[in-house]
Write a structure and sequence with these properties.
The protein has 335 residues and is an all-alpha fold. The protein is built from twelve helices and no strands. It has helices at 5-32, 35-58, 62-74, 90-115, 122-151, 157-170, 172-178, 188-202, 225-247, 257-271, 274-297, 300-316. The radius of gyration is 29 Å and the shape is elongated.
Length: 335
C-alpha cells in the first residue's frame, strides 16, 4: 500500500519533466541539427527510462502507475499544440498513444513479477521493463522524424547533408573496389575518372562498349601518359553521360561528390508524388526504428545500472525502505 502521496507526486512530476525534455530537445535536434540538443535528448531519455523502472518499485498502486504513465505520455502533445487545432494530426496523436501502450505493458509486466516474488530481485525485473519502454519511446521519436521531414516540411539541410556524408564515408570500402583513390568529398570528375582508370587498368572496358571511341584498339598499360589521360577523360565523359541518363539530372564535374549526391537525392524526393513520398517516408521511418532499436539494445545495461544505483541510494537515504509482509494462501488438497 502506498503511504506517501507527496513522493509519488514527485516521481510523477520528474517523469513528466524528463519525457517532455527528451521529446522537445529531440524535435529541436532534427530541425536544427544542433549537437547540444541531441545530447540533451539522450540524457533526458535515459533519465526517463531509469525513472520508469524506479516507479515500478516505489509505487504499489497499479491505478496510480497507469495514471502517471498516461499524463507523462499525453502532456508531450503540448509541444505540438499548433498541429492539433483546428485539424488534429492523427499520426501525431498516435505517438503518445503508442508510448503509453508500451510503457503500460512494460510496467504491468514488471509489477507482476515483483508482486509474485518473495525477495526483490532488481535487475531481472528491470530487464523486463526496459525493452518495452525503449520501444515506446523510440516509436514516438521516429514518428517525429517522419512528421517533420515528410508531413510538415521541416527538413533540415545541415542534417540531411551530414547523413549523406556519413553514408558516403561508411560506403568507402565498397567504392574503393571501383576506384582506390575514392574520397567522399572529391570532385565528381575525379570520382568518375577514378572509376574509368580502374576499369581500364584491371578489366576489359565493357562499361564503354556503346561508346564511339574504339577502346579495344589500345593496350592501356603500354600507352604513354598523355594518351592514358586522354583515354581516361573520354571514358569518364561516357560514364558521366550514363549516370545523367540513369539519375535523370545533370552532373557538375567540378561539384564535390557529397554535395552532388545530396542535391540529386533532394531533387529525387521533390519530384515524387505525395503518395509515393509518404510511402517512402514510412519505409525510412521503419528502417530508422529498427536501426535505433539495435543501437539501444547495446545500452540497456546502462539503464539497468543507473536505476539500480539510484534505487540503492534512495533506500540508503530513507526515501523508501524495504519491508516484509506475511502472506496466506489457500490450497486445495486431496482428502
Amino acid at each position: 500500500e502506498d503511504r506517501n502521496t507527496f513522493k509519488i507526486f514527485l516521481l510523477a512530476v520528474l517523469g513528466v519533466i524528463f519525457i517532455f525534455t527528451a521529446v522537445s530537445t529531440f524535435n529541436l535536434f532534427i530541425t536544427t541539427a544542433s549537437g547540444s540538443y541531441f545530447l540533451w535528448a539522450i540524457v533526458s531519455s535515459v533519465l526517463f527510462l531509469t525513472l520508469t523502472v524506479l516507479q515500478v518499485f516505489f509505487i504499489k498502486s497499479g491505478v496510480k502507475l497507469f495514471f502517471i504513465l498516461f499524463f507523462e505520455s499525453a502532456l508531450t502533445l503540448i509541444i505540438f499544440y499548433k498541429y492539433l487545432y483546428p485539424k488534429p494530426s492523427l499520426i501525431l496523436l498516435s505517438a503518445p498513444i503508442l508510448l503509453f501502450i508500451f510503457l503500460a505493458l512494460a510496467v504491468n509486466h514488471g509489477s507482476k513479477i515483483l508482486s509474485n516474488s518473495i525477495k526483490i530481485h532488481f535487475i531481472p525485473v528491470a530487464r523486463t521493463i526496459i525493452p518495452k519502454a525503449v520501444t515506446g519511446l523510440l516509436l514516438f521519436l521516429v514518428i517525429l522524424v517522419y512528421l517533420n521531414y515528410f508531413e510538415w516540411g521541416r527538413f533540415n539541410e545541415k542534417l540531411g547533408q551530414a547523413l549523406v556524408n556519413q553514408t558516403l564515408i561508411g560506403s568507402t570500402p565498397a567504392f574503393r573496389i571501383w576506384t582506390p583513390q575514392y574520397s567522399y568529398n572529391q570532385t565528381t570528375q575525379n570520382f568518375l575518372e577514378g572509376i574509368a582508370e580502374n576499369q581500364l587498368n584491371r578489366f576489359k572496358p565493357t562499361l564503354f562498349n556503346d561508346s564511339s571511341f574504339d577502346f579495344e584498339s589500345f593496350n592501356f598499360d603500354n600507352l604513354p601518359a598523355e594518351q592514358k589521360k586522354l583515354l581516361i577523360s573520354q571514358a569518364a565523359k561516357e560514364l558521366e553521360s550514363t549516370f545523367e541518363d540513369l539519375l535523370g539530372g545533370p552532373l557538375n564535374s567540378n561539384e564535390p561528390l557529397n554535395l552532388a549526391a545530396y542535391r540529386l537525392t533532394k531533387d529525387y524526393f521533390k519530384d515524387l508524388a505525395p503518395q509515393a513520398k509518404s510511402f517512402l517516408g514510412i519505409i525510412i521511418a521503419a528502417f530508422l526504428f529498427f536501426f535505433l532499436k539495435g543501437v539501444a539494445i547495446l545500452f540497456y545495461w546502462l539503464i539497468e545500472f543507473l536505476s539500480f544505483i539510484l534505487f540503492k541510494f534512495l533506500i540508503a537515504v530513507g526515501f523508501a525502505y524495504v519491508s516484509l509482509e506475511t502472506r496466506s494462501r489457500e490450497f486445495v488438497l486431496l482428502k
